[in-house]
């Protein structure tokens, strides 16, 4: 009995020991787990509000990069009524208000423009009347492209394409003509100008430069900045004759360039010297172009008398400077006429380099002002000197019907060569005579 009771006690002790051991192990495991959790909480603190915002911004940027087609805001479309532009239905008052010319004047100008040779983008082909009216309206008013569809019945994109195409066509066709027209500015014509101005036939025209304000460029700002005016600009040089026409227009040049440097780069001196030399005009009989103090005396130009060092001008020299200063203002009058009639040339907020052909705006405005003076027979300068400008047909005589057809002058001179047959010559001459009669009828109307 004693042995069995002892065995039972030993068994109970072993069971109790096992239970206590398991309890200790479980307690130790719980303690280890709690300690590890505490260490993790101390090592990695909870994210702050700034960190969470930064993480969300990064996530949004990553999501935007993953988008294959980013969403771009669309410009609001211009509402307009589409209709067929009818030039004949416009009144004379409306034409003069929107285009600076009446219908008869536009019809006389249109054959010399050669708009049938103009190239347009995107396959559009406007009528010549629509193209020239868009060009005139854009230059005469500082309006927006989105304001013009209501007048022409086409979209703003259509207006923009036509306007830029006509400007490019003007550059190719008329810009060399504006520099110097050798067919009109002959020795006899220059002497006639000199006789009208007076001064013993020594001065035949007046020269000066004009500065046109533009928006500040993004790159190369110092090139177009003029310290004299304290803004960014480009420059043109004009030679105005007593009939009020701009007989020579050179440019555009950077706003930082001086008037004398612009004159040297224009090439007008070499052209006039060649004209005098070809016609064997002696040096003492050559008239000059008069300018302000920026134009020093040379073989072609003449400036006012300058006071010598430690000396004074004579009474005759002072009278000469005063008399020529009043006459030289004619070139400033021409710039004012261009500014008053063609307002886009002075709206600098519309002149942005790289987005629009800013240099051609003033050139085309000066050309149209010349045409307007020829069509109306007078201007402010011509009335002062008593010398009317030539007719439009005389002024644009180099742009005859053959040039309107696109036939170069070299081909005109050789069109009756031996290589052509008589039948081809007869057909060509008959076509040209028919077109000349049509243009003469338009001029009479």
UniProtKB/TrEMBL annotation:
Residue ranges of the region described as Disordered = 43-74, 409-445
Q: Where is the composition biased (Basic residues)?
A: 50-65
| Residue ranges of domain DDE Tnp4 in the record | 207-344
| Molecular function as annotated in GO | metal ion binding
What's the cofactor? a divalent metal cation
Q: Which organism is it from?
A: Ascosphaera apis ARSEF 7405
Annotated protein name in UniProt: DDE Tnp4 domain-containing protein
The entry's keywords: Metal-binding
| Acidic residues: bias regions | 415-445
């Amino acid at each position: 009995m004693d042995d069995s009771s002892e065995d039972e006690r030993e068994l109970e002790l072993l069971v109790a020991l096992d239970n206590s051991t398991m309890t200790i192990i479980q307690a130790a495991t719980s303690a280890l787990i709690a300690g590890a959790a505490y260490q993790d909480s101390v090592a990695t603190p909870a994210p702050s509000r700034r960190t969470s915002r930064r993480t969300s911004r990064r996530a949004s940027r990553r999501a935007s990069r993953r988008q294959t087609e980013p969403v771009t805001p669309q410009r609001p479309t211009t509402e307009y009524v589409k209709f067929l532009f009818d030039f004949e239905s416009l009144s004379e008052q409306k034409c003069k208000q929107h285009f600076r010319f009446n219908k008869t004047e536009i019809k006389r100008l249109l054959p010399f423009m050669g708009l049938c040779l103009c190239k347009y983008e995107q396959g559009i082909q406007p009528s010549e009347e629509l193209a020239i009216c868009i060009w005139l309206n854009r230059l005469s008013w500082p309006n927006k492209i989105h304001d013009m569809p209501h007048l022409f019945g086409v979209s703003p994109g259509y207006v923009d394409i036509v306007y830029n195409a006509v400007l490019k066509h003007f550059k190719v066709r008329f810009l060399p003509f504006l520099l110097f027209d050798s067919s009109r500015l002959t020795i006899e014509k220059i002497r006639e100008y000199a006789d009208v101005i007076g001064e013993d036939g020594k001065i035949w025209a007046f020269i000066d430069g004009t500065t046109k304000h533009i928006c500040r460029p993004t790159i190369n700002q110092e090139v177009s900045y003029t310290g004299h005016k304290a803004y960014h600009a480009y420059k043109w040089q004009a030679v105005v004759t007593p009939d009020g026409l701009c007989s020579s227009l050179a440019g555009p040049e950077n706003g930082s360039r001086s008037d004398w440097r612009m004159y040297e780069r224009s090439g007008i001196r070499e052209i006039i010297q060649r004209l005098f030399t070809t016609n064997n005009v002696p040096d003492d009989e050559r008239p000059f172009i008069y300018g302000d103090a920026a134009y020093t005396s040379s073989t072609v130009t003449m400036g006012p008398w300058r006071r010598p060092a430690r000396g004074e001008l004579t009474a005759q020299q002072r009278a000469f400077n005063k008399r020529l200063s009043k006459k030289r203002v004619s070139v400033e009058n021409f710039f004012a006429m261009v500014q008053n009639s063609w307002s886009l040339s002075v709206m600098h907020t519309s002149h942005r380099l790289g987005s629009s052909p800013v240099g051609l705006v003033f050139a085309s405005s000066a050309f149209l002002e010349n045409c307007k003076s020829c069509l109306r027979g007078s201007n402010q300068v011509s009335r002062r000197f008593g010398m009317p400008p030539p007719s439009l047909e005389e002024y644009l005589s180099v742009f005859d019907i053959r040039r309107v057809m696109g036939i170069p002058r070299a081909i005109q001179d050789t069109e009756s060569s031996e290589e052509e047959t008589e039948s081809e010559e007869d057909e060509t001459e008959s076509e040209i005579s028919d077109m000349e009669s049509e243009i003469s009828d338009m001029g009479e109307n």
